[in-house]
TrEMBL record:
InterPro entries: ATP_synth_OSCP/delta_N_sf, ATPase_OSCP/dsu. The keyword Oxidoreductase does not apply. It is a peripheral membrane protein. Gene3D superfamilies: N-terminal domain of the delta subunit of the F1F0-ATP synthase. This is ATP synthase subunit delta. Pfam families: OSCP.
């Protein structure tokens, strides 16, 4: 992650915490990350040195019209400092810092089919047991794992997928 992006994220988090709007800004930052990930045009526009700053600001103001004042101030600051290309990294860094501040984390669970609410609660309990922290569960669907699940929380990964078990069996038979 870009060091400048982390510094901007820390500054915005500090300001938002002082203004009691850290939760709202976190929501805005998630929206920014999702919007940029979901739109190649938006990403290219932000990265382009050819598009004028005023045009970038006009687009961002329309796209994020319901954003918190702190979020809009961040966008203005990035434009003024000619660092708007960092917006995605700043938003992502903010989310990470906010989760650390709340002593929370994201547990990515890859499954072949969508998780039920019951399974989601069991995963959250398991993550709490393993790490001692609360976690937000993000379900990723990947039919290639065939069944079972892959759990990833921070640096910890637990692979209980059918594809992984089959691969282990295959390796055992080829080496014997």
């Amino acid at each position: 992650m870009n060091r400048a992006a982390i510094r901007y994220a820390k500054a915005v988090l500090s300001l938002a915490t002082d203004q009691k709007s850290a939760e709202a800004v976190n929501s805005d930052m998630k929206s920014i990350v999702n919007a940029i990930a979901g739109s190649e045009d938006l990403n290219q526009m932000l990265q382009s040195p050819v598009v004028k700053s005023s045009d970038k600001k006009a687009v961002l103001t329309k796209v994020f019209k319901d954003a918190n004042a702190s979020t809009m101030n961040l966008i203005d600051t990035l434009i003024d400092n000619k660092r708007l290309a960092l917006l995605n990294d700043v938003a992502s860094s903010y989310n990470t810092l906010f989760d650390r501040l709340r002593d929370s984390q994201i547990a990515k669970v890859t499954t072949a089919v969508p998780l039920t609410e019951d399974l989601k609660l069991k995963v959250m309990a398991k993550v709490k047991e393993l790490t001692g922290k609360e976690a937000e569960v993000k379900n990723i669907i990947d039919e290639s794992i065939l069944g079972g699940f892959i759990l990833r929380v921070g640096d910890i990964q637990y692979n209980a997928s059918i594809a992984n078990k089959l691969d282990k069996l295959k390796r055992e038979f080829t080496f014997n």
